[in-house]
Amino acid sequence: MALKNFLDSSLEQLSRSLEEDPPSVLPEPWRGKCRAPLAQLDLPRREQLLGAAAWVRFENKAALFRIRAKDAGWEQALWEGLFRALGYKHNAWPMQALAEIKPRWSPPAGSAFVFQARLLGLSGLLPAELPSSKTGGQPHLRRLWDFWWRERDQFATLSLPRPAWKLYGLRPANHPQRRLALASHWLADRDFVSKIEAWADPRFAENLSHSLHTLLQPAADDFWSWHWTFRSARLPAPQPLLGAARVTDLAVNVILPWLWIRAVEGKNEPLQREIERRYKSWSAAEDNAILKLARQRLLGLSNPRATKTAAAQQGLMQIVRDFCSHSNALCENCLFPELAAEFGTF
Question: Which residues constitute the domain of residue 316?
Fold first, then answer.
């Protein structure tokens, strides 16, 4: 619908107003029908409900790893999960597409630079033109091209079209070129998968996020630690290729489900319990638009601290996926309000 003639301010002004003063309480018509029964639950019961939903999400992710591993093997299933997570929601498909053909482009051994050149070439994200010499990216890009042009005919049938990627509106730190550079360092480490398996040992039970971050954070990259993109100027200080928030996403969506289902298949119950404990106690990840709206519509809460753990966040997203996404804004024909009411009577 055309609303331009009915607004009392410009879109820019309205947007700025919402960003500066987000509504802490949604109007009655915007509240979910499940909000009333959920409000009747005390804190332990609400946490129990979110925990149950979180475990459904965790088991679903683990089951997908098991299904894929039957055809491709456990390591390949892990790589596909890692690549997909690095793509975020906008570029998950092209990242996973690259991982799915990994056996066809991955050499037995290679440096991070070799993997980077190949991945950027295969992805279609290698710039066709050299940036101006003022940016500092020209020498690195020239080296990448000098390597890739010798291989591109060999991998022509595997290359992705550049339009497969969504590049607008991304933070520079989240650009897929930068994410592929990170993956290149992982691929160059022959012991990378073994290190993830070793991290499951209870000896790493303390400071889980820090220890996993240390494992996943590569050494400084000569180019990407100092540039956001090929065209950006050299940064005044080096920036890590992997932030702490992304470590949490990788843990709860990929690494922990992968480790857990392997423990299940191997009938290693102590390891199962350890992975479950880690998942349920992991600190909350960064907030996002889905969580903000869900907390307000379902729980009547605007404070992100209302979901203290990553598992609670995962549970809230699972409820949105299983129920809210299959109904409309008026919650018509949604079964969750009834289920939430029944849960409070158990």
Answer: 33-221+239-343
Which residues are within 8 A (CB) of 149 and not within 5 positions of it... i.e. 6 or more apart? Answer: none
What pTM value is reported for the model?
Answer: 0.86
- Using the structure block, give the residue that is written with the tokens 């299933």: 77
Residue 263 has pLDDT above 90, yes or no: yes
Report whether 114 contacts 223 (CB < 8 A): no
Q: Alpha-carbon distance 261 to 154, whole Å?
A: 37
Are the beta carbons of 184 and 223 closer than 8 angstroms? no
Distance from C-alpha of 129 to C-alpha of 132, rounded to nearest angstrom: 9
Alpha carbon 257 to its chain's center: 14
Cα 182 from chain centroid?
14
Confidence grade of residue 20 (pLDDT, cut at 50, 70, 90): very low
Q: How many domains does the chain have?
A: 1
Which residues, other chains included, contact 140 with Cβ-Cβ below 8 Å and sequence gap of 6+? Answer: 222, 223, 230
Instruction: Give the count of alpha carbons within 13 A of 55, CB side only.
Output: 10
Would residue 26 count as lying in a domain? Answer: no
